[in-house]
Design a protein that fits this description.
single chain; 12 strands; disordered N terminus
């Protein structure tokens, strides 16, 4: 489950299935989705497409904390969300902008204010960000990387076993935004 207590900060490296999209999580983003303006850093690996860094905190037990949602998007993709504390925890290194390359896809199905970025070459969904409506005009900022893109060997180098990730479950299938995170799947959710 998403931890609110301070733990060790780590950098997670990862990428899409085909290697066209590569990422490095040690996050720092100044990104306004609707304006598509981002802070960029062009120090990235050659022959890579999407590269970024993101910083996340481990749980007090020294594990990653992630969330599985039961909405149709997350269920269909098997998405495991590593929520970052804020968008300032993410820096996109490549491409130079979100409009920079035709292989970067942006999918916003039902909630148009949350963008889901993916590699069009292999279909891997790498990250999502934006604002999720909570009702009554309230919005919740979202900055998430797909833990499925993590480089397992790099995590081991950080002393982290991906198989020990603490998973919490969120109920968005029924729009239960106030239901919170729990330790077992909601109805319709995967383990």
């Amino acid at each position: 489950m998403a931890s609110t207590t301070s733990g060790k900060k780590i950098t997670i490296k990862g990428g899409c299935h085909c290697g066209y999209v590569l990422d490095k999580r040690n996050t720092n983003i100044s990104h306004y989705v609707h304006q598509k303006q981002i802070k960029t850093d062009h120090h990235h690996q050659p022959n890579s497409f999407i590269t970024y860094t993101a910083t996340t905190l481990l749980s007090p037990q020294g594990n990653l904390s992630a969330i599985r949602c039961n909405c149709t998007f997350c269920q269909n993709l098997g998405y495991t969300s590593l929520h970052l504390a804020s968008s300032s925890d993410f820096t996109l290194h490549s491409p130079a902008s979100l409009d920079d390359h035709p292989q970067l896809g942006d999918y916003a199905p039902r909630v148009k204010s949350v963008h889901r970025y993916f590699c069009r070459a292999c279909g891997s969904h790498v990250w999502m960000q934006g604002e999720y409506p909570l009702g009554e005009g309230k919005m919740m900022p979202i900055m998430v990387v797909n833990l499925g893109t993590a480089d397992v060997e790099a995590l081991k180098g950080e002393g982290v076993e991906i198989g020990k990730t603490e998973i919490g479950y969120y109920d968005m299938l029924s729009g239960n935004v106030n239901g919170g995170v729990r330790d077992r799947p909601w109805e319709g959710g995967l383990v």
